[in-house]
């Protein structure tokens, strides 16, 4: 069973996804079936202090749950991680698709495009050429194949970034486009699609 959970930043989507896993585990236990193996695939990279703090917050929250998580750090090669842990008695939670997409897209840029540099008024709005989209398509195709062939429960969490105005900058627009197309393709395969807003889940499918 495939579930796609979408929502904006601080929408409650992660909390909803984790509570959904808890429901699956409890239902399995109530029916006297063998316990699920719960795998948490984390795609975030602690590249700055604020992101490391966010990661630590999520780790602390998971440690306080009754679920015993096996955490897999997988900033890229997401398809391989899903395939490795796919089984009928496993629940996989991917947190999150949008960070994985960012990791894949930015990895294809030249290093000079993403290193820190000193900006001034003349360079603030300049962007490097954006040619990473065709290169990342194999990773996208592998992910879709892994989702299609997955066994067991797979919950995919992602940020819904396409409901605002068209962003400035070619890279930002490409990211929003790719995220939207990826969400559409996964939603077409998914058994359940949930949009979380202000902590309230809306079942779209």
Could you characterize what this model shows?
There is one protein chain. By secondary structure, this protein is an alpha/beta fold. The chain has one domain: Rossmann fold, CATH 3.40.50.300. The chain is 45% helix and 20% strand. It is globular, with a radius of gyration of 18 Å.
Summarize the structure.
The chain has helices at residues 13-30, 49-63, 78-85, 97-107, 111-114, 133-149, 170-189; strands at residues 2-7, 37-42, 69-73, 90-95, 153-159, 192-197, 200-203. With 205 residues, it is of the alpha/beta class.
* Number of separate domains: 1
Any low-confidence stretches, pLDDT <50, length ≥5?
Answer: 110-126
Beta-strand residue fraction: 15-25%
Helix content: 40-55%
Question: Could you give the distance between the termini?
Answer: 13 Å
The name of the CATH topology is: Rossmann fold
Radius of gyration computed on alpha carbons: 18 Å
Topology order in helix (H) and strand (E) letters: EHEHEHEHHHEHEE
Catalytic activity: adenosylcob(III)inamide phosphate + GTP + H(+) = adenosylcob(III)inamide-GDP + diphosphate; adenosylcob(III)inamide + GTP = adenosylcob(III)inamide phosphate + GDP + H(+); adenosylcob(III)inamide + ATP = adenosylcob(III)inamide phosphate + ADP + H(+)
InterPro entries: CobU/CobP, P-loop_NTPase
Active site: 58
Pathway: Cofactor biosynthesis; adenosylcobalamin biosynthesis; adenosylcobalamin from cob(II)yrinate a,c-diamide: step 5/7; Cofactor biosynthesis; adenosylcobalamin biosynthesis; adenosylcobalamin from cob(II)yrinate a,c-diamide: step 6/7
């Amino acid at each position: 069973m495939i579930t796609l959970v979408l929502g904006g930043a601080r929408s409650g989507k992660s909390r909803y996804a984790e509570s959904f896993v808890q429901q699956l585990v409890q239902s399995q236990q109530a029916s006297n079936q063998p316990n699920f193996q719960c795998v948490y695939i984390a795609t975030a990279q602690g590249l700055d202090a604020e992101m490391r703090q966010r990661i630590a917050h999520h780790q602390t929250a998971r440690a306080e749950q009754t679920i015993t998580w096996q955490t897999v750090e997988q900033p890229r090669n997401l398809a391989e991680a899903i395939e490795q842990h796919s089984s009928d008695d496993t629940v996989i939670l991917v947190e999150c698709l949008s960070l994985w997409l960012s990791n894949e897209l930015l990895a294809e840029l030249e290093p000079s495009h993403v290193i820190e540099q000193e900006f001034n008024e003349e360079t603030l709005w300049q962007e490097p050429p954006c040619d990473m989209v065709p290169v990342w398509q194999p990773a996208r195709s592998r992910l879709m194949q892994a989702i299609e062939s997955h066994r067991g429960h797979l919950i995919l969490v992602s940020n819904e970034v396409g409901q605002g105005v068209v962003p400035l900058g070619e890279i930002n627009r490409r990211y929003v486009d790719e995220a939207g197309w990826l969400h559409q393709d996964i939603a077409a395969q998914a058994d359940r699609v949930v949009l979380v807003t202000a902590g309230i889940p809306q079942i779209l499918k």
